[in-house]
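Q: Given only this backbone (253 positions), what sequence would you predict?
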């Protein structure tokens, strides 16, 4: 069905533009892959300035539902996309740094999500997905791997298992939560006393986790991934759990 654009009120202009675009998405008139009209055409339809329109489009790009290609030609302009992983990870990292969520909250969220994803992966994962996870583990075990690369591969391994679970939302949330603590985990990896022993221990657990998933032993994989997360991530949670309403959060660490 054709998209019907309507003028918006001038107060809080960019938010009203956002609301109008959201309504078209909710109504099914805008879908992933659709292109928005050029700014010079869309701004007059909304009855707003091009600067207000650009502000609304930047918000949509930030939250991962729009990508803008500058220039001219068939690929230029703004296009509706589905790209929630990077956007959610960015938002969670910011809120984590600001103290919106504590380390305890993130730890428990990771445990719940990854128990679910590893158990589901044992039931639903395709061999090719697990082969990709195994390739990541091989790179993690290479001599000379440094903390930054190890942390990146570690993140990708856990997200890959979540992806192979067959639940797209679990995969996205796992990626966002793991990304939110990536800087903190990297700092912890850089500060370990015995890097070789630490990576050997983590790699051994990763290898066993993958073997359990391949064997379809989902409950055992869920138990091990919880121990795995609490074992290293848990060492970062060294302060007493704050009472409800307390202000001290991770942004102060």
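A: Predicted residues:
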């Amino acid at each position: 069905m054709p998209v019907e654009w309507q003028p918006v009120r001038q107060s809080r202009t960019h938010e009203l533009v956002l609301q109008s675009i959201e309504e078209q998405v909710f109504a099914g008139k805008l879908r992933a892959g659709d292109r928005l009209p050029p700014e010079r055409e869309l701004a007059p339809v909304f009855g707003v300035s091009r600067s207000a329109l650009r502000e609304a489009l930047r918000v949509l790009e930030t939250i991962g539902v729009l990508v803008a290609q500058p220039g001219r030609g068939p690929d230029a302009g703004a296009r509706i996309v589905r790209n929630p992983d990077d956007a959610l990870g960015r938002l969670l990292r910011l809120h984590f740094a600001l103290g919106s969520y504590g380390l305890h909250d993130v730890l428990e969220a990771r445990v719940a999500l990854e128990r679910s994803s590893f158990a589901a992966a044992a039931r639903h994962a395709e061999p090719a997905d697990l082969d990709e996870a195994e390739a990541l583990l091989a790179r993690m075990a290479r001599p000379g791997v440094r903390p930054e690369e190890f942390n990146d591969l570690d993140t990708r391994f856990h997200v890959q298992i979540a992806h192979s679970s067959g639940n797209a939302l679990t995969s996205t949330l796992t990626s966002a939560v793991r990304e939110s603590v990536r800087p903190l985990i990297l700092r912890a990896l850089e500060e370990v006393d015995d890097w070789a022993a630490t990576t050997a221990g983590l790699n051994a657990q990763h290898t066993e986790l993958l073997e359990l998933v391949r064997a379809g032993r989902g409950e055992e994989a869920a138990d091990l991934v919880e121990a795995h997360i609490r074992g290293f991530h848990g060492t970062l949670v060294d302060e007493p759990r704050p009472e409800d309403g307390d202000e001290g959060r991770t942004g102060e660490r």
